[in-house]
Design a protein that fits this description.
six-stranded antiparallel β-sheet, 2 domains, four-stranded antiparallel β-sheet, about 10% helix, Tachylectin-2, Chain A, mainly beta, 3 helices
């Protein structure tokens, strides 16, 4: 994989090592000539990744998938060669995106049509990045997302499996929307969540690219980058904060667990 100057760019990288040692990598495309619609998948069965012994080959594209991460729950599913891509559905600016999940049962060689776990609507569109999916100590899978609601700031939320995974859980079961539940959305409040000493007006910040984290005492929080979307000098398109919005993230999980 390499970059060729054009108006298309590689984004949302993800990589996973299978139980048999193979490496699977994925990415999507962004830029003027793309539609935010496809994840491209590569496999290196040598497991080396780099060097003379490595041999990456493209296995194909997963359509109707974007901003996705690779993962396999531990246990029987990992040993059987099952692999998942979780992200959002295809779309262009103004077209709402759903939360979707695709399955490969042959170490990334072929993929199912993405299953819609949480559908978008005219009033809700989901956003994410290839952030990791977390297996909690309670045996459930957790994943952070953001949701855009017209007329308001973005909302942070978490989805998780309804039940803990067991040795009897099959890969196909996770494609069923009834196997998942989501928290209520927590709106970004620029008046209380942006420190007063930041050098940008609070209205320019929002939730983005969340990550589920398990706390030391067993609770779950999510951390989100809060992003200034204003175009600033050309050498600095985005201004990222390093502030961890922990208090707000705890509220997301409380809503889910209630």
């Amino acid at each position: 994989m390499s970059y060729i100057p054009s108006d298309r760019y590689l984004g949302s990288p993800s990589i996973w090592q299978m139980a048999n040692g193979s490496l699977v990598a994925s990415h999507d495309f962004f830029g003027k000539s793309t539609v935010g619609d496809t994840v491209q998948v590569f496999v290196d069965h040598s497991g080396q990744g780099t060097g003379l012994e490595s041999h990456w080959r493209e296995t194909g594209n997963v359509s109707a998938m974007y901003w996705a991460n690779l993962f396999t729950p531990p246990g029987r599913m990992a040993e059987s060669g099952s692999l998942f891509l979780m992200g959002v559905s295809s779309g262009t600016p103004g077209v709402p995106r759903s939360i979707v999940l695709s399955l490969s049962k042959d170490y990334g060689a072929s993929w199912t049509v993405p299953s819609v776990l949480f559908p978008a609507s005219a009033n809700a569109s989901y956003h994410t990045a290839p952030t990791p999916l977390l297996e909690g100590a309670d045996g459930r899978l957790y994943r952070a997302f953001e949701m855009s609601v017209p007329g308001t700031h973005s909302q942070a939320l978490v989805i998780r499996t309804v039940s803990p995974l067991s040795a009897a859980t099959t890969a196909e079961e996770l494609l069923d929307p009834t196997a998942w539940e989501r928290s209520s959305g927590l709106p970004f409040d620029p008046n209380t969540m942006v420190p007063p000493d930041w050098d940008r007006p609070p209205s320019r910040f929002t939730w983005e690219e969340g990550n589920a984290v398990e706390g030391p005492r067993g609770g779950f929080t999510t951390s989100f980058a809060s992003t200034d979307r204003q175009t600033v000098p050309t050498t600095r398109r985005r201004s990222w904060s390093s502030w961890l919005l922990r208090a707000a993230a705890v509220a997301v999980v409380v809503s889910l667990a209630a």
